[in-house]
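Support case: heme C complex. Customer-provided input:
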Amino acid sequence: MQTSITRLALAAVLAVALAGLAEAAPRKKAPERGYFDVSRMAPLTDQKGDPANGRKVAATKGLCVSCHVMPIPEQPDHGDVGPDLAGVGSRMQPPELRMRIVDPKVLYADTIMPSFYKSDLNRVKKGLEGKPFLTAQEVEDVVAYLATLK
Ligand code: HEC
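Agent response - structure generated as follows:
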């Protein structure tokens, strides 16, 4: 009898202490624009992406091949800093592909992959301030191309 009362008292003290701790712990603030923010994933243009132009952008202006192996044989020098993009259209849906091109830093803040559709880039050449690296249509074209890589 004596022990169960002691245990009960102990449990009550513990419960009060824990409740106090929970109260004192700082609340984690939800990220303002996180992974599942659909506004990051919606198409950037009304015009559907053109996969043929997307392939061209990936091999040239987009510099995707400087870091990724891609099924673009006429461009022989591919980097392997990022994952091989063959089959990426089976692994990811267009909204995720788009988000990864627009601003991959929302998924992994320290990634070396550039944000291709962000307008507040650092150290931009004079005259290009406030402009994203790719146009909205170019992003849509690259998304359409990657979606064909099944
Ligand atoms: C400077 C190197 C670099 C460049 C340029 C680059 N990427 Fe990446 N990319 C990466 C790295 C590294 C990863 C691996 C994940 C991470 O670090 O975010 C990645 C991941 C990805 C992924 C996810 C693939 C997977 O299987 O997980 C896609 C899709 C992608 N990149 C597409 C592109 C496209 C399209 C371009 C060109 C418009 C491009 N990347 C340009 C480095 C780069």
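Confidence is low (pLDDT under 50) at residues 30-34.

Case will auto-close in a few days if no follow-up is received.
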